[in-house]
Design a protein that fits this description.
The structure is a homotrimer. With about 325 residues, the first copy, chain A, is of the alpha/beta class. The first copy, chain A, contains 12 helices and 11 strands. Chain A folds into 2 domains: about 150 residues, Aspartate/ornithine carbamoyltransferase (Rossmann fold); about 140 residues, Aspartate/ornithine carbamoyltransferase (Rossmann fold, 3-Layer(aba) Sandwich), CATH 3.40.50.1370. Chains A and B meet through β2, β4 and α3 of A and α2 and α12 of B.
Chain lengths: ~325, ~325, ~325
């Protein structure tokens, strides 16, 4: 089987921890010898990006590879994923051709494809990413799909590990207000990686905003394996008590999929991250994957304060990207 | 005169065959020594692309050059080609400046510019590409214009040569259904290169869908020179009998330029490529330049079957791109 | 303090002249040894570009660095610059995060951001560029802002210096017609650099089209320091008499900010640059930053004639870009 890096669940705890440790080592000693020289890597985007594009592009370049950045469906043809369809509509190219072709030009193919936000049943199968995995003949990297954002999760764990031994520490994933119903990829992956790292996981969210069942099952299994606690609550600000890590993120409701989020002021005030809430933590650090809407998700006072590690967290996308690329593509392979 | 690679007709049979042979050699032994190091190459797109952009970009990078990908008129200013015009409208920059300027920054400039599809008289002069050729001071590469797609043609012939000695073999270009009236560049270049290679050429198309007269004259001349046969017919599926290569492609009518294609089911059934039709060939391979609309141009059964060589054909864009770039830009020059 | 290259006024005459001299030397002997190898540089565009993107990109690549080209707000999230705002609107990411994050991935960040054209008071503070300077932890390069285009100015002076010793020579900045009210960045920087170089500066513009007061104060101070003359006039074509350099450019009125330009034929005829006007100069060269609207700004006869140096001027963007990049990023630093 081709090695891919698309979902945390495909990798053992040891493999994920080794990737993070490799990234920490790469941060200290960036490789100078262009280990991926002569390779080209395709980074395909169906949604906007800043950290993901630039971290992958600069990681690739610094390792000697050529990054090809493609805005799929806008710069290129609109792509089809359905099998057996008569293509007499808007889509001009099937991924059955596009992905094998990219696999001939490039040594890896990566895709960012958000869910449509109209049907979770349709979104959760991740049709574009699944087609990439099915048809690629080179490693596939997930740059965020409906169900997960594994590259972000590695950077998240790296950022925690730089500050504490995560085992037994307290990790709070706290839902936050937003103007849009956002994908569940980042919170799912953040909860999963925290549990993999042996942290006690608390998920604070309004009722009706639970993470997908399969994610929760994996989080519960990891917690059980490491002897850590798992709690799901809507009791904020109490949930902040004694936390070592506060990870804020907004996401949409699966029960009421794609519906607008509640926008009344009291609800937003209840869920925004403030200095007052952070004061209840055990010197907790504040994390967010970025981009973050200031004073909606979190107040300036927190983001601009000493507890915020969001820029380091973003920087770590670079180092973990290098680890992933080297792991998949360099001759000395970790896994 | 500056060497360019814009039209098959500018090159001798020997030159074209040498380019294909060089590409075959490059596929076996990709150069590792960055022969184009320090060069930058401008790839300008006025239309979508996947294979063309990525094959050129990865070919350039693998040879050590820096590819500059420009979406002309969207990322940049809208460009003018008319001489003497008072530029008080939408176009902000004349190619009289843009192309010489790019020639100062880059060691080659390449352009994809489709026909407008409203007037063949206007389109056939290829105003944008002609302005590139007129004003460039470095080699110009045609990445598909109204009249031809020479880079595709090289990959087409390479794909055939990898499987058979083309001389005396039977090549069928078969028109196929589509929802749009498409450019004639690919079928014209495919017919031309097959004839150049000494193949017997059959063009199966509905009445009213003939290729341009100058293309047909060149195809006829090449066939005559090599002693090959040339036939134009609307007799499908009979035209498939005994073919060694089936090249499917849709294109618009010159007589009824830009008009919608017939869309009735019987007509589409008549012209779609099926397994039943392929069975009449002499173990013929199935070719298409991609992107291909599945089950409109060709049925899944053919495209997913053993006769289909479309992904290899697309891969060969990479190797022929390297041959073209080396030919134009490397010190050891073929021609 | 971090070194930046964002405004001419931040640099001494000696520093600017040294950059131009370095560019002239780099043109003669392009560096082959990849002095910026391993670096990545972010070039952010909020407006179209041709010369700026391609010259920076090819300069970076030729020095061994990887250029990251970002169309900020279209490929990426829409960015916010206001402090303290509740981000519940269109902007999804604050430059307070975006710029520090880019600073972690890249060794320099560059920005093109035009003025909005609705309020000079708002535009002249250059909110996006100012946020870049405030939040970057690596050098910032201005690729054109409301108040200036320093990279263009270096290329302008280099182009003059290749043809004459500028000291004591006559420089005419002449306003020209256009269909839009354009930014004042280029004419401001052109006047400033000509004055810095010791040229006598004449600015010919319709009444009501004066450059900003602070620009004029700096131009006057430079002229005074070098003993050169400064004149502002609407007397065309007389202003062309005896000029060694004619620099044409259209710009909008500060007094009537963002308003459409006069479009009547007599006015346009009065201000367009013609061969007849050029004949009054002292063998003057014709300069323009490009893109130039032919037969609106300047007649074909001038642009296509021997006095025009616009393509050389554009080429010099490449060499001056290399000088700026080396100055900011290479170990052997000029300043």
């Amino acid at each position: 089987m081709k090695p891919h890096f698309t979902h945390l669940k495909d990798h053992t705890r040891a493999q994920l921890m080794a990737l993070v440790d490799k990234a920490i080592a790469l941060k200290k000693n960036p490789p100078k010898d262009r280990p991926l020289a002569g390779q080209s890597l395709a980074f395909c985007f169906m949604n906007p990006s800043l950290r993901t594009q630039v971290s992958m592009e600069t990681a690739a370049a610094s390792l000697g590879a050529h990054p090809v950045v493609l805005f799929l469906g806008s710069d290129t043809w609109q792509v089809e994923f359905e099998d057996g369809v008569v293509m007499d509509g808007k889509t001009a190219e099937h991924l059955k051709e596009a992905v094998p072709v990219l696999s001939r030009y490039c040594q890896a193919v990566a895709l960012r494809s958000f869910p449509s936000g109209t049907s979770w049943d349709e979104d959760k199968v991740e049709p574009y990413l699944s087609a990439f995995k099915k048809h690629a003949t080179v490693p596939v990297i997930n740059l965020e799909s409906a169900s997960g954002h594994p590259c972000q999760a590695l950077a998240d764990l790296m950022t925690i590990k730089e500050r504490m031994d995560p085992k037994g520490k307290n990790f709070l994933l706290t839902w936050a207000p937003h103007i849009k119903s956002l994908p569940l990829a980042v919170p799912s992956s953040a909860a999963e990686i925290a549990a993999v790292a042996g942290m006690n996981v608390t998920i604070a969210r309004p009722k009706g905003f639970d993470l997908p069942d399969d994610v929760m099952a994996r989080v519960a299994a990891s917690c059980k394996e490491s002897g850590a606690k798992l709690a799901v609550t809507d009791a904020v600000p109490d949930a902040f008590d004694g936390q070592h890590v506060v990870y804020a993120k907004s996401w949409g409701s699966l029960q009421n999929y794609g519906a607008p989020l509640p926008a009344d002021a009291a609800f937003r005030t209840r869920w925004i991250v403030t200095q007052e809430k952070m004061a209840r933590t055990d010197k907790g650090i504040f994390m967010h994957c970025l981009p973050v809407r200031r004073n909606l998700i979190v107040r300036d006072e927190v983001l601009d304060g000493p507890a915020s590690v969001v820029v380091d967290q973003a920087e770590n996308r670079l180092h973990t990207a290098k680890a992933v690329l080297l792991n998949l593509l360099a001759e000395e392979n970790l896994s």
